[in-house]
Amino acid sequence: MDSRCELLKELRSQAPNLSVHDRTSSFFAELQLYYNRGLAQEPLAIVRPTTEEEVSEVIGFCSAKGIPLTVRSGGHDFFGRSQAGNGIVLDMRLIDHITIAPDKTTATVGGGVLAGALQQELNAHDLFTPTGHSSSVGYASWACGGGYGFYVGTYGFGVDQIVQARVVVASGRVVDTDQDSELLWGLRGAGAGTFGVVTQLCVRIYPMPRLYAGLLAFPLSEASVLLEQFERHVSEDGIPDEFSGDAFVARPEMLQLASSVSCFVFLWCWTSVGGNVTRAKVYLDKIKSLGTVVVNTVEESKSSVGPSIISRTLS
């Protein structure tokens, strides 16, 4: 029996209920899929805790044995930092509980919850909290790492939503930020795996806003003029707090052939907390006037942008 097998046997004996997958597991290849598949590394094992106690056992074991450990939820880190060659990957996706407070102002979110699952649960209660552009991104790592997205102007960043956390530190000890305000301060912006493993966040939630969101695409040949005009518009009039977006270049097949030419695309989102989207429509017309619109999917919605309007258009 080689040292790898001996280590995993010891881990299984210390945490008998823990789900441990090595290269012999039929689920290993599936569990190892990441957003950036060009950076795949083979770990010693992928472990899937279901409780905070199991997270503590794994971290304590790895610390004691000197085994490299990394944490994953959505697996979207472009540089592959949620991978561990010859180490252990702590796959948090089974710690996916979501509990809405009775007063509907906060929600308790497990460390492995994905953004789409969180918004789906909140949508069912006509509630909302900011998330990123993609439904498959891990919420806790997104929020603790800054939490940039479409709703910054209206609600602030993801870090601004965090009011409490539970973290397992390197020794295996569980720390509640209600007893450690400095840890909470650090987590809110630098906490994506820096200080320990976040097993739970308590975050602010809000009544569901009305959204005016989707894609606005112009021919790529107009990009230079379009950007010059947009820059002039911003310098003269600024950007409304309710508006946010992103931009990218798309081939026709990325837009499900809605256009026959490559396009410069705005991801568009207007967040109306008061429910009135009249100003959104006026602003949309202003942006449309900057060039030749070839695709326009902007419409009213009560669903968050990532899992809904935009993902229905992009293939």
TrEMBL record:
It comes from the Eukaryota. The keyword Oxidoreductase applies. Keywords: FAD, Flavoprotein, Oxidoreductase. Residues 39-208 form the FAD-binding PCMH-type domain. InterPro entries: FAD-bd_PCMH, FAD-bd_PCMH-like_sf, FAD-bd_PCMH_sub2, FAD-linked_Oxidoreductase, Oxid_FAD_bind_N, Oxy_OxRdtase_FAD_BS. GO terms for molecular function: FAD binding; oxidoreductase activity. Pfam families: FAD_binding_4. Gene3D superfamilies: 3.30.465.10. The keyword Translocase does not apply. PANTHER family: BINDING OXIDOREDUCTASE, PUTATIVE (AFU_ORTHOLOGUE AFUA_1G17690)-RELATED, FAD-BINDING PCMH-TYPE DOMAIN-CONTAINING PROTEIN. Belongs to the oxygen-dependent FAD-linked oxidoreductase family. This is Oxygen oxidoreductase covalent FAD-binding site. It comes from Macrophomina phaseolina (strain MS6).
